[in-house]
Write a structure and sequence with these properties.
- The complex is a heterodimer of chains A (376) and B (115).
- In chain A, α2 packs parallel to α11 and α3 packs parallel to α15.
- Chain A has 16 helices and 13 strands.
- In chain A, the strands form four sheets. Chain A has a five-stranded parallel sheet. Chain A has a four-stranded parallel sheet with strand order 4-3-5-6, sandwiched between helices. Chain A has a two-stranded antiparallel sheet with strand order 10-13.
- Chain B has 115 residues and is α+β, with helices and mostly antiparallel strands.
- The chains are: A alpha/beta (376), B alpha+beta (115).
- Chains A and B meet through α3, α6, α7, α9 and α12 of A and β5, α1 and α2 of B.
């Protein structure tokens, strides 16, 4: 099988799997949450959960920025974009997120001026190339992406760019973890911490998870071996009755994070009192907005924003899946009305959404298990 | 590959842009702007922003992880090669290469027009 054959260090993979089997108490059921959507994608793509004992359950967390974006925010952004002379610029991830009157891609097909960009800097470039238009960057992402938006805003201010603004949907990961731990229907034994977010925020912000909630957390890389070693580290802690923050991804993630990136975020953004997350509801101090000094570049201040709130389609159970209460295939719409080609819910839009990942890769399960020869 | 804001169909596969990081090797730091660098990634040379790497400034020959046009951290060559391999295994190489190609050309004189 292709993916298993191409694993780097197959002996180390097998050794890690052996260690996991030895560390896992057969009398206990482990629920480990990978917070990051990139990890979810990697876990499915590499078929990692098929290498684990059946009493280790991986719960897919809220770390996919497209998946947690409420439909109302798309509608609000598109309402602004419907005004004459406004250009809606966003990463490709956003383009197929359903709004009540269609996704950005569908609205583009109906004549709205919507552009795909690859960097926030492209939005500035578009604004300069189109001085008669107003370019609104529909910003999404966790702390990984927020610094690039912040630097772009600093540049817009330094250059006095007037026909540019940001519709800010940047969210922060720690309050989401807190909300999950506070949720009465959740029971998580430990967390696989996000890799890229942690390059910015470092490991220190997770210390409260370990200290106050008694949950171990291991910041992990994205290779199969990284993820398996992170699970080993979590199981070692759980077996020893410990709860601390560990950094498996030291080759990229500094314990203290990236000071320049954190400074840029602090310069430009402040915390919103609350923000709605799809599936998790309103979470206090969980998202960023532009500071007053940057009001001129804040689309929510420059334009009338309806503040649309949209309930997800009743049949779609994105919220339960996002919280790990339901598996993707247990949703009534999964694979029927809701597919990666025609997503109803946001978890099916991004390749890092748990539903899309499950849909795309789960069928490889039996072949993987057979080829690696490791019993589950 | 020219930067094209109009053709969207091909951009919709692969990894999430808001999560994707791409290794690139620093070729040159701009003499005019120390926060701008030319990188080589997937065999193409493009400009990126290196403002976020302040503690140990990147130098030509070193590798960085790039996210939406901004270098996020320095990494070793071994880790860069491993990261490229992981992108390949994840099926994200086409999306990553496409993203790199969309960045500003290292030599503006040869850059195609945007619109």
């Amino acid at each position: 099988m292709k993916y298993v054959d191409e694993f780097r260090n197959p002996q180390l993979i097998a050794k890690s799997v052996d260690e996991i089997c030895q560390l896992a108490d057969p009398q206990r059921h482990y629920r480990l949450m990978e917070v990051c959507g990139g990890h979810t994608h990697a876990i499915y793509r590499f078929g990692l959960k098929d290498l684990l004992p059946s009493n280790i359950e991986l719960i897919h967390g809220p770390g996919c920025p497209v998946c947690v974006l409420p439909m109302g925010r798309i509608d609000d952004g598109l309402t602004i974009a419907a005004q004459p002379g406004v250009v809606f610029a966003a990463f490709g991830d956003v383009m197929r997120v359903p709004g009540t009157q269609g996704s950005p891609l569908e609205r583009k097909a109906r004549g709205m001026d919507i552009r795909i960009i690859y960097s926030p800097s492209d939005a500035i470039k578009l604004a300069k190339l189109n001085p008669d238009k107003h370019v609104m960057f529909f910003a999404i992402g966790f702390e990984t992406t927020a610094p690039s938006t912040a630097l772009t805003l600093l540049r817009a201010r330094a250059e006095g760019l007037r026909n540019f603004s940001v519709f800010c949907n940047h969210v922060t990961i720690i309050p989401a973890i807190r909300a999950i731990l506070d949720s009465p229907d959740m029971r998580i034994d430990g967390f696989i911490g996000p890799g890229h977010v942690s390059t910015v925020i470092g490991c220190r912000p997770y210390e409260w998870v370990a200290a106050n909630e008694g949950k171990p957390i291991v910041v992990s890389g994205f290779e199969p071996l990284d993820l398996l070693q992170s699970i080993v580290m979590l199981l070692r802690q759980l077996r020893a009755g410990e709860s601390k923050v560990e950094n498996q991804y030291k080759r990229v993630v500094p314990w203290e994070g990236n000071r320049a990136a954190l400074s840029a975020i602090a310069e430009v953004f402040e915390l919103r009192p609350y923000f709605e997350w799809r599936g998790l509801g309103f979470i206090s101090q969980s998202a960023l907005r532009l500071r007053e000094e940057y009001a001129q570049w804040d689309a929510e201040r420059r334009f009338d924003v309806p503040g649309i709130r949209v309930t997800d389609p009743k049949a779609a159970q994105c919220g339960e899946v996002l919280k790990g209460v339901l598996k993707p295939a247990q949703c009534k719409l999964f694979g029927r009305e809701c597919t990666p080609e025609n997503p109803v819910g946001a978890l099916m839009v991004s390749s890092e959404g748990s539903c899309a990942a499950y849909y795309n890769y789960e069928h490889r399960k039996s072949a993987l298990v057979t080829s690696i020869g490791i019993p589950t | 590959m020219p930067m094209d804001f109009k053709e969207e169909g091909q951009h919709l596969s692969g990894g999430c842009r808001a999560c994707l990081t791409i290794p690139g090797r620093i070729i040159e730091i701009s003499p005019q702007n120390p926060n701008s660098a030319v990188v080589d990634a997937f065999g193409v040379r493009r400009q990126i922003d290196v403002t976020l790497i302040q503690d140990h400034r990147p130098a030509p020959g070193e590798w960085v992880l790039i996210h939406v046009g901004f270098a996020m951290s320095k990494i070793s060559e071994t880790d860069a090669i491993d990261h490229l391999r992981t992108l390949e295994l994840l099926g994200e190489t086409p999306a990553a290469a496409q993203e790199i190609c969309s960045y500003d050309w290292a030599d503006d004189k040869n850059a195609p027009s945007v619109e």
